[in-house]
Amino acid sequence: MKVKGVLAQENLPDDQFARGSSYIAASYVKYLEGAGARVVPIRINRTEQEYTNIFYSINGLLLPGGDVDIQTSQFSRAAKIFYNLSLKANDAGDYFPIWGTCQGFQQLSVLTANKNLLTLTDTKAVALPLTLTP
To answer: If you ran DSSP here, which 8-state letter would residue 12 be given?
Structure first.
């Protein structure tokens, strides 16, 4: 059976409904379980060694959507550790997929480019063409 990790999100400081310092939306867990995976929650604010131990216990990672800083948050710190471990594993022939949804995908783009290429806009509900370049 495949075991997938889901990285927790930090609660925003001004969220009056937040309970605790982090959370994982149940929808991500149910999504993975519906596909037959066992889910391991990955908490933020852990040591690099703890993340490394978890990495070697799972078969993939889901970076969920959210609303934290993709360069300075504990979410981004943990994501970077898992990303670098996955690159090493993949280079060694051990396939380790990372799926990013919404902010998780943005996090992957920042990690891949090694800088933030994203631009903040106030655009909503506008469909634009996607033009890929080499």
So the answer is: P
For residue range 100-128, list pLDDT tens digits in order.
Answer: 999 999 999 999 999 988 888 888 888 88
Beta bridge partners of 60: 4
Q: How many angstroms separate the Cα of 57 from the Cα of each of 8, 42, 61, 130, 131?
A: 17, 11, 11, 37, 38
Tell me 99's DSSP state. E
Token pair recorded at residue 57:
């216990």
Q: Please tell me the distance from the alpha carbon of residue 54 to that of residue 117, in angstroms, as a whole number.
A: 29
Confidence band, pLDDT 50/70/90 cuts, at residue 1:
low
Cα diameter, the chain: 46
63-82 b/e with 16+ CB inside 10 Å = b? bbbbebebeebbbbebbbbb
Which amino acid is it at 8? A
CA pair distance 61, 44, nearest whole angstrom:
14
